Amino acid sequence: MKKLSMIFMFLMLATMSVFAKSVGIAMPETHVLRWIKDGESLVKEVEKRGYKGLLQYGNADQAQQNQQIQSFLTQGAKILIVGNVNDGVVSVVNEAARDKVVVVAYDRIIQGTTNYSAYITFNNYKVGTLQGQAIESALNLGAATTAAPKYITLFAGSPTDANANFFYQGAMDVLNPYIKKGVLKVIGPYPETYKDTANFQRIATENWSGTLAKTRMENLLNNDAAKITLDAVLAPNDTLGRAIIEACKADAKYKSKLPVVTGQDAEFDSALSIKNGEQYMTVFKDTAKLSEAAVILADAIANGKTPEIPGAILAEGDLKEIGYTGTGYVPAYLLDPIGVTKENIIIPVNAGFYTAEEAAKLK
């Protein structure tokens, strides 16, 4: 009997140990390809460190993601890494805080609460800066004149994703001086900053939907931009950039020359488009490094250590705003993004960002 009791206790302790080492990984969706890669990378990184990775995708549905996170908590996860769908995640984050679970917001800040441990992302203001600088360079805006202005239309990301604000602001801080000089003309709505909520909503793209972006671009081409030729389109990510290019390619005015179209995420289809001279640029965010950094961060916090993350800085000064949740600040750790054009498309290739088959098509 005593032997059976000892076996039972051993099994209980082993089970508790597995639960204590579980990490819940909640990713928002799969229709933007980078989230699939992120989820897979995060599982690899937690398993390297002896944790059990529990991965779920939220299908762009916050109620569904909340159920997934509650399931992680039920399974005993003591660390959560969350790329949330929208602010509706706050209720389960607060629940996790009550249970003293370490929660790291992954590449999307969780707004409306400070009841979590940290936020890790790329320098999203710089992402926008790189997009704006690419347009500035490609259109040679420094030499543009009011007599022969350049024409641009503006797109922003999902209004429920706080990163969209920083992407947009980074780009517009580069472009606004040219708009004010009259050498760059905006076709369609023009929010000077993301804080112009009414106009920002008009250029925002719900759930980062390529379908919505294509429809809006088609409407622009048939209406506001019907009598002019656009020189550039500020597109915040690759999914939207490719959709915008599709719409332009159906317009006779752009058969021989497409506008300069920006992007972000270095998705393979966009990298190939850049190589083929269609999409102008993307921003490479090495999500394998982000995944590694997120796990280093979460592991350090869980073990009461000061995070030391290679290649990341703690957001301070003006950048501290990246960690503002609307109710206060959380520690925000930032990695550096890289602007990629046809000239340096080899950078994400050499980083092992693509499959061998994809990489061969980009070399």
Characterize this entry briefly.
The protein is of the alpha/beta class and 363 residues long. The chain has helices at residues 2-20, 33-48, 62-74, 90-98, 124-138, 163-181, 197-203, 210-222, 238-249, 268-275, 287-302, 346-350, 356-362, and strands at residues 22-27, 52-57, 79-82, 102-106, 118-122, 150-154, 184-186, 232-234, 260-261, 282-284, 313-314, 332-335, 338-340.
What this model shows, in words?
By secondary structure, the protein is an alpha/beta fold. It has 2 domains: 2-116 and 286-336, Response regulator (Rossmann fold); 124-284, Response regulator (Rossmann fold, 3-Layer(aba) Sandwich). 44% of the residues lie in helices and 14% in strands. It is built from 13 helices and 13 strands. The strands form 3 sheets. It has a 7-stranded mixed sheet with strand order 2-1-3-4-5-12-11, sandwiched between helices. A 4-stranded parallel sheet has the order 7-6-8-9. Strand 3 (79-82), helix 4 (90-98) and strand 4 (102-106) form a beta-alpha-beta unit. Helix 2 (33-48) packs across helix 11 and helix 8 runs parallel beside helix 9 (238-249).
What is the CATH class designation of the largest domain?
A: Alpha Beta
The strand line-up of the biggest sheet is: 2-1-3-4-5-12-11
Mean pLDDT: 93
The assigned structural class equals: alpha/beta
Percentage beta strand: 5-15%
Order of helices and strands: HEHEHEHEEHEHEHHEHEHEHEEEHH
